[in-house]
Amino acid sequence: MTSRWPLYIAAALLLIVTIVCVAVFAAATFNEDTDTNTQEHYTEQVTALLANADPVRGEALIDEATCAACHVSGAEIGIAPSFEGVATRAETRRPPLNAAEYLYESIIHPTAFIVEDYTGSMPQNFAERLTGEQIGDIIAYLLTLK
Predict the structure, then answer these.
(1) 137 and 58 in contact (C-beta within 8 Å)?
(2) Which of 19, 34, 75, 104 would bridge with 82, disulfide CB 3.0–4.6 Å?
(3) Tens digit of each residue's pLDDT (9 = 90 or more) over 92-120
(4) Which pLDDT tens digit goes with each residue over 44-69?
(5) How many structural domains does the chain have?
(6) Phi-psi sector, 84: left (phi>0), alpha (psi -120 to 50), beta
């Protein structure tokens, strides 16, 4: 009968390598989130984005990106929160973030906070699809919706 020790050793080594890889990946992900998803980081980003933002361009961008499909029409059936009154709700939605910071987070990291009774179906790639100027314009427009 052939010894199975080499098989057991190989399986144990594979398990150890897998655990180490998962731990390293989790630590890197955690550090990335804690480094960039802070109020201080958001404040810096949002201040820069809003410096020359244009709410008129932001409204046009919302139409281009078909945001209204979920946040206006879809809001009536519970797909996403309505744009109506979003600036007012954003002021207190996620303390200590202010309205602009919360809207920024909602666009850039839409799963960081999911509004109760919604599923978190917001596209995850707006940070790649939109320029900083466009994001600033959208936030500026949304801040007009009290």
Answers:
(1) yes
(2) 75
(3) 999 999 999 999 999 999 999 999 988 88
(4) 999 999 999 999 999 999 999 889 88
(5) 2
(6) beta
Q: Please tell me whether residues 24 and 44 are part of one structural domain.
A: no
Give just the sign of the alpha carbon dihedral 112, 115, 119, 121: negative
Residue 48 and residue 76 in one domain: yes
Kindly state the average pLDDT of the residues 6-25: 76
Residues 48 and 110 in one domain: yes
Q: How far apart, in whole angstroms, are the C-alpha atoms of residue 107 and residue 4?
A: 54
- Identify the band that residue 11 occupies on the pLDDT scale cut at 50, 70 and 90: confident
User: Is there a single domain that holds both residue 49 and residue 113?
Assistant: yes
66 and 24: one domain? no
Q: Please, what is the Cα angle at 88 between 143 and 35, to 5 degrees? A: 70
Q: What angle do CA 36, 42, 43 make, to 5 degrees?
A: 140
- pTM here is 0.74
Q: What is the CATH number of the domain that holds 124?
A: 1.10.760
| Res 33: pLDDT | 43
Which domain range does residue 102 map to? 38-142
